[in-house]
Amino acid sequence: MRVPYSWLREHVELDLPVQELAERLTLGGIEVDDIVRPTAGTRGVRVLEVTDVEPVEGSDKLHLVEATDGAETWQMVAGASNFGPGDRVPGALPGATLPGGLEVGRRTLFGHTSNGMLASQYELGLSDDHSGIWVLERDAPLGADLADWLDLDDPVLVLEVTPDRGYALSIHGLARDIAAIVGTEVHLPEPEAPQGDPGVPVTLHDTERCPRFDARRISRVTVGPSPAWLQRRLAAAGMRPVSNVVDATNHAMLETGNPVHAYDLATLAGPAIEVRTAHPGERLRTLDGVDRALDADDLVICDAQGPVALAGVMGGEATEISAGTSEVLLEVANFSPTTVLRTARRHGLHTEGSRRWEKAVPEEGVTLAATRAAGLIAETSGGEVTGGSDTHPRPRQRPTIHLRTRRAAARLGLDLSTDEQRGLLERIGCEVTEPARDEAAIDVTPPAYRPDLTLEADLHEEIARLHGYERVPEQVPSSGQVGRREPEHEARRAVRRSLAGGGWTEVMPFPFMAEDDLELFGLPAHDRRRQPIPLVNPLSKEEAVLRTTLLPGLLRVVRHNANRQVPDVGIFEVGRVFLAPVSDEPGADGGPDGVRLPAEPLLVGFAATGAFERPRYDRPARPADVFDLLGAVELVREAVGRGGMHVEPTEEAPYHPGRAARLSLDGVALGAVGELHPRVAEAAGVPPRTLVGELRLAPLVTGGVRSRVARHPSPLPGVRFDVAAVVDEAVPAAEVEAAVRAGAGPRLADLRLFDVYRGPSVGDGRKSLAYRVRIEDPERQLTDTDEQAAIDGVEEAVRDRVGGSLRR
Fold this sequence. Notes:
By secondary structure, the protein is α+β, with helices and mostly antiparallel strands. Helix content is 25%, strand content 26%. Strands 26-29-30-36-35-34-33 form a seven-stranded mixed β-sheet, sandwiched between helices. Strands 3, 4, 5, 6, 7 and 10 form a six-stranded antiparallel β-sheet that branches.
């Protein structure tokens, strides 16, 4: 926001240099990014009256102009033609300087001497408008120095207003805050209630979204340019002057913080005003010339025939102010921040007004904004306020906050008494009372212009801000407690580190997908992932719903790389998916007002294609396969410190039958990994034999991340031997490994699967899994007898647990 310093000084007593004020504001929580003087340096520019205009012979654009400053007549050559005799204009006389250091002199054009130049707003640094000479009002002081008359040396503060300080988007809000921070007086105009019937009935159908609507009627209006002081002020504030009526509404918005909109009353059907949500099929052509299809959630202002404005966002083209407007109806309303935010996002239409609504504008400011806008329109257009109405069926009750002053002082680390805290809060307009039951507490009712103050913690922040953040002493926390992360956060960090260390590359796609993405995977109709949650205002069709699986984002990354001749990819993502709530799900009813919230499980997803191991001089490239994904799963398991998972074949979508595995832990399903089905790979535009997988992290981190306990190496040599277990084809390898571990006993130091064999020597429907076993004992040297006892134990466990035998 851009704030002219002179405008602030109209409402707050200030004798500070502007640089010191900027520093005090920044320390008070309102950051001043810059101080600019866009029109500084203007010297020797006077108000002249044009007495004669003649075309220059031999030129189709230039005009010979005679203009006087009341004491002397000057001849100039001008290229613009938007002025005539009797108009008062800014004239830069010989020796004058313009912003940027441009010095004006005499020059000859087509045989005529031009004694300086007539200036546009652009040349004076006021705006980007260079379409013609700036025509001033007829009563502009003839011969006056323009820099003195319009205070062109006035500095402008450029503010960065954070979302929690919406009140600072107005001159009045800033004036109140400056008065509180600096300790001076603020002077604000008094609101005037509407008088007389405007002849335009107002009906509010949704008082939650529009709790108040003030309508003012101004008659006998003459639309034209605004006076120079108003144009200069709006230009300094970063707004383009349009006309006296529109400029007055913008001035009122900048001053009070409450957006104002003006309608040409003659174009309103009825005339009547109705505030409601849009009906199916309704459309509105807004002031920017765009014909918009309205959504059923859009709040609209309607006349007797239909919508004439998007509430809080932009008016309609059919009712805009024009040169022929003679009667104006002002809309000064109050709208719900959420309503305006959704409408603005839905239509991709953000305006100065909508930005203010989104930060919450108090409904109590409506009357003052209407008073200021209506008064300025009447003053600058020669009109008269002939009626008004204020529809406000349910006035807002301001909250009262119980503030425990000892607690506030302790939390802030400040030695502030109850009286001192009370004084600070009263400086911003809080009403403070002391409850009889507690001497160390006060009841605080925040002022109407501060709807952001709702909690006791908000008052703590205000006390610190007004006392001065720079005066808060630096103290080392006295608590000996050390913070710790939640188990899920710790697991997420551990998994990311482990996978990255294992050679996988982390990616972070957007958490959105196209609804059509789910059709690619061939998921069964009952699968919960087929019910995505749509976005209210999606960025595009490809990102229209919240993801229910990580696979679409991972496949987009694979496709992006493949299209750019990067064939070897091994990526992972740790992120959340969003599943529509079901009534029997734990925590499904945990939202506000009984709204069921979606489940947001944390998953880790993988995708790989091409060569997982690149070729070297001593070996060829090795294509990625499902065992690489199982290796990644093993890295995840080790990172969180959990025991072995159960792995079994699966034919579920979207995997290739026979080349995928389902994973579980203690009977709880974790996910699956495998090669993408060829049809899915082709439809997704990724290379054949692309491998993907997903794994739920929550079951793995129950009870937190478990530290890995290092095994102390035995000082004595161990014994290594191989065993081959023959089992039925249907028996999962994980069950065989568990049997071998159990049979080897407590001396087991290491166990590795090194071969899988199927063939005539083991019989049809059978397979042989060969393991390398190492046992050791730190207390004594193992013997052949110990080795044989371990082999016998393995044989017994394989026979009893999985119905197998050892190959001899």
